[in-house]
Write a structure and sequence with these properties.
By secondary structure, this protein is of the alpha/beta class. 37% of the residues lie in helices and 19% in strands. It is built from 17 helices and 17 strands. Strands 5-6-4-1-7-8 form a 6-stranded parallel beta sheet, with helices on both faces. A 6-stranded parallel beta sheet has the order 11-10-9-15-16-17, with helices on both faces. Helix 7 packs across helix 8, helix 10 runs parallel beside helix 12 and helix 11 packs across helix 12. The longest helix is centred in the middle third of the chain and has 15 residues. The radius of gyration is 24 Å and the shape is elongated. Bound molecules: adenosine-5'-diphosphate and magnesium ion. Magnesium ion binds next to helix 15.
């Protein structure tokens, strides 16, 4: 490195990785264009009196800003999405038809539905659109070529459009025809491929903001398994000032420290991995907090089914043989929330305990409140992970954080520093 670089201000040396160098709606020429938009409409549905009814329309609502922007720009919008796992078969209960009706209601304008997602019928449906009109194409996973990222199928999808927008961050870690292949074909013939507004926010917060975080940067990790998140821990050890570990994964770290864990959920084959993370933290001077006390419960059977018997606070780092750790204890909660309240950037991924059970939710909820308090004092808080989002919403605090990722598996892979095929396929600015 040239010597003069060492004297540049930090903001210069640690310039954010340019995720935002991907095209966005703002950069695209949309008026009168046929735009194929990949959305995440994998919504929960249930059958009621022989028809499929949408139980939760959050994912449909989440796409409205992008769709309104496209409509406002005079684009002709063809939406492609998957629902469930039909494995290449036309499974009627997995049709996207009910979504078209719901979307029409929410958008306040009719949304056409086409029973095909490629081929002549689809082409006709798209070519008949006027500027600002929308058609939803049938479940793209009715074709097995979708998940195979088949070239011919990608080319068939590409025939429907002049340009492409991906707003389905949650599917961006899969190299499928509708998330990657089609963008390759469209870009290959000079068409623009850009990020929708939802995707753009994901890249901004999980990418740019965490790449150059304001300090103190506190990373809170929890949930079930160390193995799910070790790569995230490893990468963030290079950025974080403090790493806070709760949930069952904390017990594997306890094992690494030679402590006892009783009947807690642990991964004995991951103790060396946990130890390596502890060593790296020590080397890099990253504060690494694991619970010093826990709520423990007695695993037992009630009516032949697994259940927890009594529960209590275990006021020791060691967990006795006959019980299982199910939440962080009050002392740990105090220590964790204090660091969180002092943070300027927070990433939270994974609950502190089995929060689905009200008896074991207090650690997770206290952390949620501390994250919101820090946010109110000016910190940026970024929440990744489906269950962490659920916990935050259960605590009624979903609107008090800076950003909640819609990604699940995709956010985890992105946080690991992996290139997501659905992002890589988009055009550079
Ligand atoms: P996220 O979806 O936010 O990434 P995970 O899926 O990794 O989170 O983990 C969430 C699950 O971890 C929850 O179902 C929760 O019950 C479980 N969990 C948290 N703490 C414990 C624990 N001490 N013992 C067993 N399971 C736990
Ligand atoms: Mg989860």
């Amino acid at each position: 490195m040239p010597v003069f670089l060492l004297f540049l201000p930090n903001s210069f040396r640690y310039a954010p990785r340019p995720f935002m160098a991907k095209l966005t709606l703002h950069d695209m020429d949309l008026a009168g264009k046929r735009v194929l938009v990949r959305v995440d409409y994998n919504v929960p549905m249930a059958e009621e009196n022989g028809v499929m009814v949408i139980n939760d329309d959050t994912r449909i609502r989440a796409t409205l800003p992008t769709l309104q922007a496209l409509i406002g720009a005079g684009a002709r919008v063809a939406l492609t999405a998957h629902l469930g796992r039909p494995k290449g078969e036309r499974v009627p209960s997995m049709s996207l038809r009910p979504v078209a009706a719901k979307l029409g209601e929410l958008l306040g304008q009719p949304v056409a539905f086409c029973e095909q997602c490629v081929g002549e019928a689809a082409a006709t449906a798209v070519n008949e659109l006027a500027d600002g009109e929308v058609v939803l194409l049938e479940n793209v996973r009715y074709h097995s070529e979708e998940e195979a990222n088949d070239d011919t199928f990608s080319a068939e999808l590409a025939e429907l459009a002049d340009c492409y927008v991906n707003d389905a961050f949650g599917a961006a870690h899969r190299a499928h025809a509708s998330t990657a292949g089609v963008a390759g074909v469209i870009a290959g013939r000079g068409g623009q491929c850009g990020a929708g507004l939802l995707m753009q926010r994901e890249l901004q917060f999980l990418g740019d903001e965490l790449d150059a975080p304001a300090g103190p940067f506190v990373v809170i990790l929890g949930g079930a398994k160390v193995s799910d998140k070790i790569k995230v821990i490893d990468r963030l050890l290079e950025k974080a000032d403090t790493i806070v570990i709760g949930g069952a994964m904390a017990y594997t770290f306890k094992l690494a420290k030679g402590l006892t864990v009783g009947k807690s959920l642990v991964e004995r084959d991951k103790v060396d991995v946990a130890q390596a993370a502890l060593d790296k933290a020590a080397e890099r001077n990253v504060q690494f907090l694991i619970p010093t006390d826990n709520v423990v419960a007695e695993p037992t059977e009630i009516d032949g089914k697994f259940a927890f018997g009594y529960h209590r606070v275990n006021d020791s780092e060691n967990i006795p043989d006959d019980v299982e750790g199910v939440d962080i204890g009050p002392q740990s909660t105090e220590a964790f929330t204090e660091v969180i309240r002092g943070a300027k950037t927070i990433l939270w991924n994974g609950p502190m305990g089995i929060f689905e059970d009200d008896r074991f939710s207090s650690g997770t909820f206290a952390v949620a409140r501390a994250v919101c308090d820090a946010t109110a004092s000016g910190a940026k808080s970024i929440i990744g992970g489906g269950d962490s989002v659920k916990a935050l919403n259960k605590a009624g605090l979903g609107d008090q954080v800076t950003f909640m990722s819609t990604g699940g598996g995709a956010s985890l892979e992105f946080l690991e520093g992996k290139e997501l095929p659905g992002v890589a396929a988009l055009s550079d600015k």
